Amino acid sequence: MASPTLTSTPHPAAEPTPPGASRAKDRGMDRGFRYLSIASGVLILLVLAAVAAFLVVRALPALKAGDAISQDVGWIGAGQSLWTVIGPLVFGTVLAAIAALAMAVPVAIGIALFISHYAPRRLANGLGYLVDLLAAIPSVVYGLWGVMVLAPVLQPVWDFLVRWLGWIPLFAGDSNGNASNPPRVLLTAALVLAVMILPIITAVSREVFLQTPRLHEEAALALGATRWELVRMAVLPFARSGIVSAAMLGLGRALGETMAVLMVLSPGMLYSFKLLVASQQQTIAANIAAKFADANAMGVSALIATGLALFVITLVVNMAARAIVARRKDFSGAN
Amino acid sequence: GSDNATGGSSAASSSGSAAPALSGTLNGGGSSAQDKAQQAWIAGFQTTNPDATINYTKSDSGAGRKGLLDGSLAFAGTDAALDPTKEIATSGTACQGGKAIDLPVYISPIAIAFNVPGVTELNLSADTVAKIFSGAVTTWNDPAITADNPKATLSGPITVVYRSDDSGTTKNFTDYLKKAAPSVWNYDVTNTFPVTKDTFQGQNGTSAVVQGIQAGTGTIGYADASAVGSLGKVSVKVGSAFVAPTAAAAAAAVDASKRDTDGRADNDVAIKIDRTTTAAGAYPAILVSYLGVCDTYATAAQADLVKGYASYVVSSAGQDQAAKAAGSAPISDTLRKDVLSAIATIKAKG
Amino acid sequence: MSQRIDAKDLNIYYGSFLAVAGVNMSIAPRSVTALIGPSGCGKSTFLRTLNRMHEVIPGARVQGTVEIDGVDLYGAGVDPVAVRRQVGMVFQRPNPFPTMSIAENVLAGVRLNNKRINKSDANELVEASLRGANLWNEVKDRLDRPGSGLSGGQQQRLCIARAIAVRPQVLLMDEPCSALDPISTLAVEDLIAELKSEYTIVIVTHNMQQAARVSDRTGFFNLEATGKPGRLIEIDETATIFSSPREQATEDYISGRFG
Amino acid sequence: MSQRIDAKDLNIYYGSFLAVAGVNMSIAPRSVTALIGPSGCGKSTFLRTLNRMHEVIPGARVQGTVEIDGVDLYGAGVDPVAVRRQVGMVFQRPNPFPTMSIAENVLAGVRLNNKRINKSDANELVEASLRGANLWNEVKDRLDRPGSGLSGGQQQRLCIARAIAVRPQVLLMDEPCSALDPISTLAVEDLIAELKSEYTIVIVTHNMQQAARVSDRTGFFNLEATGKPGRLIEIDETATIFSSPREQATEDYISGRFG
Amino acid sequence: MATLEQVPDSTEALRRALTQVDPARKRKDVVMRVLVYLAFALAILPLVSLIWSVLVRGLGRFDGYFLLHSMRNVFGGMDAGGAYHAILGTVLITGWATLISVPIGLLVAIYLVEYGTGALARAVTFFVDVMTGIPSIVAGLFAFSLFYLLVGPDSRSGIVGAVALAVLMVPVVIRSSEEMLRLVPNELREASLALGVPKWLTIVRVVLRTAVAGLTTGVMIAIARVIGETAPLIITVGASNSINNNVFSGNMMTLPVFVYNQYGSGLVACTPGDASCIPTINYDRAWTAALTLILLVMLLNLVARGVSRLFSPKTRS
Ligand SMILES: Nc1ncnc2c1ncn2[C@@H]1O[C@H](COP(=O)(O)OP(=O)(O)OP(=O)(O)O)[C@@H](O)[C@H]1O
Ligand SMILES: Nc1ncnc2c1ncn2[C@@H]1O[C@H](COP(=O)(O)OP(=O)(O)OP(=O)(O)O)[C@@H](O)[C@H]1O
Ligand SMILES: [Mg+2]
Ligand SMILES: [Mg+2]
Fold first, then answer.
1. Which of B196, B268, C227, E69 could tie B264 with a disulfide, CB 3.0–4.6 Å?
2. From the CA of D231, which ligand is nearest?
3. Nearest alpha carbon to residue C199 among C160, C156, C241
4. Do the chains contact at A48 and E131, CB–CB below 8 Å?
5. CATH number for the segment(s) A63-334
6. What is the DSSP secondary structure assignment for residue E283, as one 8-state letter?
7. What's the pLDDT at A159?
8. How far is the CA of E203 from the centre of ligand 2 (A)?
9. CA distance D165 to D117
C-alpha cells in the first residue's frame, strides 16, 4: 500500500475537486477524442454527398446534350438522347436483378431454415461457414465460371424451357423458335447473380430466424406442433419483415453487380422480356464497364449519368430495405 | 518477384544491336485487334531496351485515338486512320503544336469464323456473307449457302455473333460488305455493328466474339484472323476463286490498294483499301491497323522512345515477330520505306 | 381429463452434464403440485421432461421413466408431438403469438390438427377456453385484436386459455407469475385453484408464499454445489413442508437462510 | 477512510421520466446501509447517483444535492471522474476485465489511468487489496491467469478488490450477491462485515434476509404504480424495520405480500 | 366441441393418443423437411462446381514461378508469365484502401456506439446503411471523377483504385465494428468508469482492447469484400504487364483485372506443330489467377480467425 500515487490521495474535504494538471489533460483528451469521432461521422455524410455531387456534376453535360449526344457517343443511336437509352438500361438492370431475386429467395430461405432449424447444431455452423464462403469468392471468378462452366450446362435446360414453356412470354424463343446458342442470355446471367446474392440473403434471414424468440418457438412446440408447423407458426411470421429486407439487400447487390453480367450476357438495348434470347437487354453496371474504356468526354459523361441512375435505384431499394425493418434495438443496455 | 518472366538475359539479346538502349515509359492503347502483335512487339523491344517499359492497354480503336488526342496516351493503336478534319485538325494541343500522324503497322485478314459441327471448310460469296450478316439468310441449308458448298452437310439455324462494342474490326468488315456486296448490304459503315435481330448475339471484344462462336453451334461471326484459333474460316469469293484469310492473301490485297492522300500530309501514311479487287489470291476483308503517334513530343527522350519503338515495330524483325504471334501479314518493303521516312519526321518540341 | 404422473429414477442431462439426478415423484390427478428450490437446482429442467419439451434443447436427454397413467412418455413409438398435446405448458413469460389475434391465439393449437374447424365450433371453443382462463369478460369485445396488446397478466391468462383449448390431460406451469404484478398474480392464482378440478397441475415457483397459497403438495429441489446435479430433497403435503419439513435443507431454504 | 453521505431532496430523471423522487437520506461513516424494495422502485438508480455513474446513461440527470462530508458531488467544478475514484462501486454481475489477468484486474484502476507504478509497489498493492477482499489465499498462485477463470463468487470478490485498490472513501454495491450461489454469498457477506470497519458501505439487495444479516440500517423504497416515481418510504435501524416498521407498505413488503 | 378428438378414457386410448399423429401433418412435415434439405443441396452444388473448376483448371500452373514472375515480355502462346505483378498490385491497393478506411470506420463506429445520440447519429447510421448499397462501379466512377478533377485525364494510378475500394470498405468496417463494440458489455465500461477512468481511456484501453478480436475479423471481412473487385479497378487503375510498386503513379495490375484480361485475351492462334505455343495459355492463367485470388481471400479468413483466437478475451468459465 506504499504506492506514492495512492498515498498522495488528498484529504477528503479537499478531494472532490482536485484541480491537478493531469485531470485537466484528461478532460482535454476526452473532448479531443469526442470531437475526432464526431468529425468522422460528419465525414461519412460528406463522402456520400460528394459521391452524389461528383456524379451529378460529371453527368450534367450528357444530360443537357439532348439528341446531339449521338454524334459523340457511338453506342447511342442517331437521333436518340440519353433518356432513350437509359430507359432500356434501367429496364434490363431491374429485370436481371428481379429474375435473380426470384431464383435466390426461395432457396436462400430454405438454406437459412436448414441452418437455423433443421441441421444438427454442430453441423450448422460449418454449413453456415460454407455458404459464407460463397460470398467471399470474387465476382470475376463467378463470371469466369458462369461463362465457361455453367453456360454449356445450361444450354439443354434452356432449350427444354423454350420447347415446353415457350408459350410463356418470358421463355419465348427467338424467331427460329430456339433458345439462343450459346446461352449468353439474361436468365444465365441472372442465375449467376442468384448464386452470388444467395449468401447475403441467407446470412440475413438466418440471423433473423435465429432471433425468433425461444418463447414463441416453445409456445408452438408445447402446443404439439411439428417442426414445420413450428416454422410456420412462430418463425416465418416473426421473420417476415427480416426476409423482405434480406431480399432487398440481395436486390441491391444484384442491381450493382458488374463483372458476372459483363462476362456472361450478350448485350442489347431493348425493352424485352425474353429471358432466353441473346442481345435483348443490358444492365447499367455492365454497360459502364464495357463502354468506359473507349468513351470520350461526352461518353464518360453519359456513362456517369447512367451510373447516377443506378445509384438512385440502389439507394431507393436499400432505403426501402432499411425502412421495412426498424433497426434492431441496442444490444448493449446495462441493468 | 521478377519482371524477367521469359528467362531471357538482357545482355545476350542486346548484343546484336549497335544502337544505344532506350529508357523510359511509354503508355499506349487502343485497338484490341493489334493487341497480340503489340504484346509481341513490346516483348521484342523491351528485350533489346531493358530499361524501357511500354504499356499497351487493349480496349478499342476509338479509345486509343481519344487517348492520343487528349494527351493521356503517347501512341494509339487504331484500326482506322485518324480523320483528317475531325481528329488530326484538333491534335495540336496534345501534340505540342505539331499534329498526329498514322503509321500502318499491322495488316491482318478479318476471318469470318464459324462453328458448324462436321464442317471444316466453307465457301461463300460476298453477297451470301452480306445476306447472313443482315439476317436475310437464317438457316445453314439455305440454297445461297449450299450452292457454293455442295459437299458439306449443312442444317440448322444460323446464330450470328457480332461485336457489340465500338470496333475498327466492325468498321472494316462493314466497309467490306458495303463495297463488295452493295446490292445486299444497305447499312452505313460504322464502328457499331448496325443490324440487330433476335438470332444475333453481340459480344464485347474480339475474344468474347470468338468465345461466343466457339461455345455455340451453328454460329458464325467475324474477328481478326489472329484470334479465331482453330475455328473454321470462310473462304470468300474473289473474282471466280475462293480465297482463305491468310497472311499472304491479306498482303496481296494491300498491294492492290493505293495510299489515301485526301487532305493528309506526306508523313501521314494511310491506305485506301480496295475491297472490290479481283487480283488473284487477294483477300479483301482485311484490316489495316495503324500506330497513331504525334510528330512532336514534349521531350527528346519521349520522341526518341516513340521513334525507337515505331521503328522496331515496322522493322522486318518486328513484323516477323507479329506474324509469328498474331498471324498477321508483314508489310511490304515499299510500304516500310514510306513509314520509316514518316517516323524520321518525329521530333521533340522546340 | 386429468391423469396421474409417475417419475421413476429420472436422471436429466444437458449433453454430458447431469443437471438433475434420481427423481422419484408421484403426482395425483386433479391436484396442484408446487416445485420450489433455489435458482439452478433443476426445477424447470424437471418440469420440461414431463412433456418432452426437454428434448428441444440440443444434446439434452433423459434416463428413467415418466409415466402418465402407466404409459411411459419415453417409451418406444411414443411421439413427442402427441405427448405435448396431452401435457400442456405455460411459461414464465407470457408468449402469445404476436402476429395472431386473441381468438387465433386461442385456436392456434387446435388449428394444427383440425384445419377446417367450422366457424361456430371455433367461436364456441374460443369462448369456453377464455372463460376457463377467466379472461372472457375482459377481452370478448376485441377478440380480433392482437394478443400482444393485452397486459402481462391478461397475456398470461391468454396463454393458459391457449393451452387448455387443446384439452390436455396435464398442465405444467413454469413460474407463471414471476413476470406479473401482484394483481395479475392474484388473478392467475385464482384461476389455478379453479382449474384444479379438471386438470393435473404442476407449477414451479420461486415465491414460497405462492406455493403455500395454491398447492396441495410441495416438492423441494436443491443442489449441493454448482456443477453438482440438483435433487428432489423432499415432497409432501404443502402444509407439512412449510410447518415441519423432514430435512434441514428444506427448513433452511423456506426460512430464507439462502437462495 | 470513510465518509458521511447526505442526500437532500433528490429527484432523479431518465430524460423526462422522473424515476425517483424526493429522497432525503443520511448515511453514517463506517456503517452498512441496505436498500430494499420491489423491482423497478429505483434502488439502483439512487445508488448510482452517489458516485455520478447515473450520468453515464444518456439523458439521465439529477436535481437536489448529494454531499460527501459536506462537499456537494454535483457542485460546480466537481469532476465526475474524480468522484468515482472516491466512491467505488461493485455491480450486480461480477465484471472483471476479460482481457486482464487477476493481478492486472486489481491494478486496473491505477493502470488504466496511465499512472506509473513500480513493480514492488504494484505487488504490494495487489496483495493488500486481495487480502482485503478475502481472496488472496485462493488466487495467490495464479495471479497471472485470466480473472474470468474464477468462480462467480471469487470474481465478485476480485471486483471488490479492484474497487478498494484505488482506496475509495465509500463503497457502493448493487445486488452484489444476486448472481452467486449460497456459499459465495456467505463469503461476500462476511467480507462486507469486515470492510465496514474501514469504509462507508451502501448495498442494494433484493434478499431481505441478507439485508437483515449484513446491514446496520435499512432503507425501503417503493413505488405506488408503474410510471410513478419511486420513493424512499422509510429508513431506520435494520432491527426496527424488520420487527416493527412504521409504514404499512414496508410491513406488507417484508412479509412477502408482494414483490 | 364435437369436432375435437375423443378424450382417451383408458390407458389404451391414452397410449393411442400418445403414439399417433395425424398422418397428413406428418407427411407435410416430411415434405417440407425434404424441400429444405434440397434447397441446401442446391446451394452447395454451384459452390462445389465452382471450387472444383477453379482447382482442376487452375492448379496446373499454380507454382512458385507463377507467383513470383510478372507478365513482362510475355506474349502469344508462350509458356511463361505469372501473376506476381497482379498479386503485388492487389496487396498494395487493398492495403492502401484498408489504411484509408479502417481509421475512419473505427472512429465512426466509436462515435455511433459511445457518443452518438440524436439526429446526427441517426443520420450517420442511416447513410452508412445507404452507403453499403453503393454499387462498386459507382464507387469507381466517383474515384475516377474525383481524381479527374484533381489531377487531370491521366489520373490512373493505384491510389485512385484504393480510394474507390475505400468507399466500398468504409461502411462494412463501420457496420462490423459497430456490432463488435456493442457486444462489449456495458458492465465493463461501467466497471472502468466506476474506477475513475476517463471516458476516452475507457474506450481505448477497455472497449477497444476487449473488442479487438472482433474488430480484426470485421476488417478482414471488409478486405475480403473488396479484394475481388474488378470493375472499379478497370476504370481507376487500368492494367500493366510489368511490376509497378508505386501506387501514386502509373497503371498497376491487380488479380481480378488480371483474371478478366487473361480471359479477354482468349485463345491463341498457334502455328500448327509449334510445341512451345499453348493455345489455351490465357485461359489457363486466368484460372490459376482466380485460384490465387480465392486462396488469398481464404488466407485472409484464416488470419482473421487466428488473430481473433489470439486476442479474444478468455470466456467466462
Ligand atoms: N440449455 C441448457 N444447457 C445446458 N445447461 C443448462 C441449460 N438449461 C439449464 N441448464 C443447467 O441446468 C441446471 C438446472 O437449470 P434450471 O433452469 O432447470 O434451474 P431452475 O431450478 O429452473 O432455476 P431458476 O429458478 O433460475 O429458473 C443449471 O445448472 C443450469 O445451468
Ligand atoms: N436506462 C434507463 N432509462 C430509462 N429508464 C430507466 C433506465 N434504467 C432504469 N429505468 C427506470 O427507472 C426506474 C427504476 O429502475 P431501477 O433499475 O433503479 O430499479 P431497481 O429498484 O434497481 O429494480 P431492480 O430490483 O429490478 O434492479 C424503473 O422504472 C426503470 O424502468
Ligand atoms: Mg427455471
Ligand atoms: Mg437494480
1. B268
2. 2
3. C160
4. yes
5. 1.10.3720.10
6. H
7. 93
8. 25
9. 13
Closest CA to B74 of B92, B50, B43, B95: B95
Domain range list for chain C: 5-254
Q: Are A130 and A154 in contact (CB under 8 A)?
A: no
The alpha carbon of residue A300 is apart from the nearest alpha carbon of chain B, in Å, by: 11
C-alpha D151/C-alpha E310 separation (Å) is: 23
Angle between helices A151-165 and A186-210 (to 10 degrees): 100
**Distance of CA B13 to CAs B21, B45, B47, B48, B146, Å?**
11, 10, 7, 6, 53
Q: How many of the other CB atoms lie within 10 Å of CB of C241?
A: 26
1.10.3720.10, 1.20.1050.10, 3.40.50.300, 3.30.420.40: CATH of E64-311: 1.10.3720.10
Q: What are the pLDDT digits (tens) for A203-257? A: 888 888 988 888 888 889 988 888 999 999 889 988 888 888 889 888 988 998 9
What's the pLDDT tens digit per position in A52-92?
898 899 899 998 888 888 877 878 877 788 888 899 999 99
For the record, the C-alpha cell of B252 comes out as 496481296
Note if the bond before A182 is cis, omega within 30 degrees. yes
Q: How far apart are CA E33 and CA C123, in angstroms?
A: 33
| D148 contact partners, CB below 8 Å, separation of at least 6 | D96, D98, D155, E313, E314, E315, E316, E317
Is the CB of residue D183 less than 8 Å from the CB of residue D154? no
Strand ranges (E), chain C: 5-14, 17-27, 32-36, 60-68, 71-72, 87-90, 170-174, 200-204, 217-223, 230-237
Of A120, A216, A224, the CB nearest to C97: A216
The CATH number of the domain covering residues in C5-254 = 3.40.50.300
Binned average pLDDT, 10 residues per bin, chain A of 335 residues = 31 38 70 91 92 90 84 78 90 96 94 90 80 82 92 94 92 87 93 92 88 86 90 88 86 90 91 91 92 80 92 85 54 25
Name residues contacting ligand 2 (CB within 6 A). A 335; D 14, 17, 19, 37, 39-45, 57, 206, 230
Say which of A178, A262, A296 has its CB closest to residue B204: A262
Sites in chain B below the pLDDT cut of 70: 8-19
In this prediction, what percent of chain C has a pLDDT beyond 70? 95
Ligand in closest contact with the CA of D40: 2
pLDDT at residue E290, rounded to an integer: 94
Strand partners, B30: B58, B77
Q: Which of C182, C207, C258 sits opposite D182 (nearest CB)?
A: C258
Yes or no, beta carbons of A219 and C159 under 8 Å apart: yes
Please tell me the predicted confidence (pLDDT) of residue A5. 26
Touch between chain B and chain A: 3 or more Cβ pairs under 8 Å: yes
Task: Locate the ligand 2 atom nearest the alpha carbon of residue D15 and give its number.
Answer: 4
Q: What is the pTM of this model?
A: 0.83
Distance of CA E292 to the CA centre of its chain: 15
Are B161 and B223 in contact by the 8 Å Cβ rule? The answer is no
In chain E, what are the domain boundaries? Answer: 64-311
Q: B: neighbours with 3+ CB pairs under 8 Å?
A: A, E
Contacts of B98 (CB under 8 A, 6+ apart): B91, B92, B294, B295, B296, B347, B349
Q: For the stretch A36-52, what's the b/e string if a residue is b when 16 or more beta carbons lie within 10 angstroms of its beta carbon?
A: ebbebbebbbebbeebb
* Shortest CA gap C230–chain E (Å): 20
Alpha-carbon span C174 to C205, nearest angstrom:
7
- Whether E89 and E157 have beta carbons less than 8 Å apart is answered as no
* ipTM greater than 0.95: no
Which of C215, C214, C112, C213 lies closest to C162 in space, CA to CA? C112
Instruction: Report which residue type is found at A93.
Output: T
Question: Cβ of E80 and B71 within 8 Å?
Answer: no
Contacting residues of D for E206, CB less than 8 Å apart = 97, 112
